[in-house]
Amino acid sequence: MPSDEHRAPGPSPQAADAIELLRRVPYGRLATSMRALPFLAVARHVVCDGRILLRMHSGFGYHEACDGSVVTYGADNYNAAAAGEGGDDLWSVQFTGPAKIVHPGPEQAGLFGTAPARANGEPFAPAYLRVDPHFVTEHTLGFDASPLVRHAA
Which InterPro entries match (predicted)? Predict the structure, then answer.
């Protein structure tokens, strides 16, 4: 059985592909538990040095629940693909690993772009997490040349 000692440095080919997909969308969902209950939270992400940096509203306390815990962060192109943007293939990626509260410098914080003005009616106060992905899952749904079925509202 191979050990991690013989693995080449850097992300695995699957992780590298998933990270490239992640770069195509700005937001995803963070999943973990808080007070023994599961929750999902929206977060803005950027990728730096093979790690995922997240920006979320600190007023909810989700970043504190995640600090030092194993979390899952996922994103997809379902809305963009349904709108006919970015090709016809649907994809989703999921990264699982430990999270840590971080305080990015101005250059890294600038990668996130403009922050929302408000979160649930409160002034947006950013909190940042770094996720070190240990497990990566990628799913795609290819439609070849067939058109996507769209439902009228």
Answer: Pyridox_Oxase-rel, Split_barrel_FMN-bd
